Amino acid sequence: MPEPPPPMPAISVAEMQMLVTRAGLTLNPGQMADLVLAWRQLEGLIGTIPHDRPLVDDLASQFHLAPPEGADAAAAPANRDSRARSAPAPARKSTAKAAPARKAAAAKSASRKGTAKPATGRKASAGKAGPARKAAKAAPARKATPGRAATRTAGGTAAKAAGAPRRAAPARGVSGKAPPKRTSPR
Amino acid sequence: MRKGEVPPFLTIADAARLIASRKLSPVELTRALLARIEAVDSQLNAFLLVASKQALAAARAAEKALAEGRKAPLLGIPVAYKDIFETAGVRTTAHSRILHDNVPKQDAETVRRLQAAGTVMLGKLATHEFAIGGPATDLPWPPARNPWDTARFTGGSSSGSGAAVAAGLALGALGSDTGGSIRLPAAYCGIAGLKPTPGLVSRRGVFALAPSLDTVGPMAWTAEDCAIMLDVLAGHDPLDPASVPTPATSYTRAIQAPLAGLRVGLLRRAWEREVPVAPEMRQMLDSAVGLLRDLGCRVEDAVLPPVQEYNAVGRVLISAEAFALHEATLRTRLSDYSRVFRIRVLGGALIRAADYIAAQRRRTDLIAQTAAAFGKFDVLVSAPTAGAAPLLGDQRPDEGFAKPFLTTVANVAAIPSMVVCGGFTAGGLPLGLEIMGPAWGDATVLRVGHHFEQAAGTRSRRPTL
Questions:
Q1: In this predicted model, which residue has the larger pLDDT, B6 or A170?
Q2: Element (DSSP H or E) covering residue A152
Q3: How far is B353 from chain A (nearest CA, A)?
Q4: Does residue B228 register a pLDDT over 60?
Q5: Catalytic residue, candidates B25, B96, B157, B417
């Protein structure tokens, strides 16, 4: 078990100013003062979140590929993973128990990356499509930006980790334009 | 009730019965509510836009459908939407200068479902800007005020929804909840509001705040009314990537089952030690426990991880995700946002990716630990707020994330949670009671809320304006 990392040093106002500039923002002195105040609150909260997790722990940011054509949606890896996670046991224990299943699921997902791609785009064949594939067909194929993909993933993760009665992986829709409207095109 | 007469306050369930029996006309009901909005909303600022013409047209259509024999529980029921829900052809601003003239082409999926069910849209409701922050005075529209005492805060961010339903200006409303935004106004305004399990109700066409935590849900005078709305709102939306296919459920039927034998856990440590509540709130909670026992529930204390842990995770995720969503607009139109919005969101620019991931990983643990508590309990009961609605003038924009919210537990834990009116202070202000269930236990949460409301008898008292 590695040593927990030392706490992050607090950043100075000058460093904050640099980060704000890097983010492309121009703040007047009053706005900068507000940011300093807000950041000091956030910084305190961040300090209370444990960072010292075992390296083998899974990342929270997961995503579910639509099952390949012809596969039974109910048997998709995401489902097994979700059942493993929903076990009412302390997190660490459930993580440890679920690890082999998740590794297997991850390996399968990785090997299917190529076949899964059409399901999110226009080329998804209708055939005997389940809800996910029908939805994918209905949704115009646009390339999702990485940021938006992460957002959708996180939402899906919450439902999944909560033991969602998933029958099929939901279609991964595509976002509209900023300002931040939720979702896929209609 | 004489024909043509409209009672001053109606629940959705009552209005539906009167409409179905042809004792109440949707057009008369809509006219009465539009007149009430005209008469009292200048004191409340609940509505950003009143769609009178569309409302009357929809009411006439409902009346025609009724004459043709259509039967639906929401046919002809007037509702309104928090102004982050897109409405086709009707301005949707998110209470922000940024979207001052935004007129969407399509309805949000939830709006579409309610319209298809025959509801009548009265208009668009106030919110905190983009559903975050607090009451702001540097925006084009004033903040909503609490109908029980117009000097007081409604809670937020679904502030207009809480005020409009409590004041009887709409029979139901839609709200959104990322850290408590349905349940806080429900508590302060003395109504019922449900934050459903994530994935149960589509979020498509609703302006996002923090997509990994956002949910949308019904707000109404009673838990039964929320159940009637949820019957229509729940269901898989293949175009919402977070929507989950679930078995069809009749929430209105489910809430009728008695509570005998139900296991209720009290999060006493949270309201006694972590976020100490006011004495009147504590008294109300004690009475609520007594009522739940009288209803046949087995009540014991329950313990979850500290409220502050849920809040730390929730607030880091909200700041980071909200900043990411607004980044481009903040670069070009920073001064067009309210100060309170900037204070809540700009900090997200400084959050490191490692900290964001740590928050997501901690959330995974908290979801599992909360789920484990439901091995022993069917529902958990808590206080949603430390007391009754504070004065609007006491809300400071620079408060930021200083105070933990009891409601954020359910958002981070990805569980359903509702607030119902638990009682009143000696001064006549409502006090909320929060009921949380396991993921997909929305029906149980509504059921407890429904039976509690009936036993507590809090639904006969309305604000006077």
A1: B6
A2: helix A146-161
A3: 12
A4: yes
A5: B157
pLDDT at residue B299 tops 80: yes
A15 touches chain B (CB under 8 A): no
Size of interface A-B (CB pairs under 8 A): 268
CA B261 to chain centre: 28
Q: How far apart are CA B359 and CA A48, in angstroms?
A: 10
Across the interface, whether the CB atoms of B244 and A24 are under 8 A apart is answered no
Percent with pLDDT over 90 in chain A: 15
Q: Are B335 and B231 in contact (CB under 8 A)?
A: no
**Looking at this predicted complex, what is its ipTM?**
0.91
Tell me which long-range contacts B328-333 makes (C-beta under 8 A, separation of at least 24).
B328/A178, B328/A179, B329/A178, B329/A179, B329/B98, B330/A25, B331/A23, B331/A24, B331/A25, B333/B97, B333/B98
Backbone angles phi, psi at B56, to 5 degrees: -70, -35
Q: For residues A138 and A135, what is the distance between their CA atoms, to the nearest angstrom?
A: 5
The strand order across the sheet containing B192-195 reads B47-50, B120-125, B78-82, B172-177, B215-220, B192-195, B417-424, B430-436, B379-382, B263-266, B298-301
DSSP assignment letter at B10: -
Helix (H, G, I), strand (E, B) or coil at B65: helix
State both tokens at A83.
């059942």
A132 interaction partners in chain B (CB closer than 8 Å): 238
Catalytic residue among B181, B212, B319, B338: B181
Mean pLDDT score across all residues of chain A: 55
For chain B, which domains are there? 16-460 (3.90.1300.10)
Amino acid B4: pLDDT: 67
- At A181, the pLDDT band (50, 70, 90 cuts) reads low
**Mutation target vs A (from B310, B361, B377; most A CBs, 10 A cutoff):** B361
Active site residue B181: yes
Q: Which residues of B fall within a CB distance of 8 Å from A185?
A: 239
Whether B161 sits among the annotated catalytic residues: the reply is no
**Is the model's pLDDT at B306 over the cut of 90?**
yes
Q: Which of B82, B124, B319, B338 is catalytic?
A: B82
- Considering only alpha carbons, which residue of chain B is nearest residue A19? B350
pLDDT at A163 over 80: no
Tokens of B463: 């604000």
Residue type present at position B182: I
The three-state secondary structure class of A73 is helix
Q: Worst-scoring range by mean pLDDT, B30-34, B186-190, B192-196, B399-403?
A: B399-403
Q: Which residues contact B250 (CB under 8 A, 6 or more apart)?
A: B231
Bridge partners, residue B264, by sequence = B299, B379
Residues 6+ apart with CB under 8 A from B292: B259, B264, B299, B381, B448, B452
- Residue B273 in 3-state DSSP? helix
Domain boundaries of chain A, sorted by first residue: 1-52, 73-161
Confidence category of residue B283, pLDDT binned at 50, 70, 90:
very high
| Chain A residue whose CA is closest to B365 | A91
- Hey, what amino acid is at A98? A
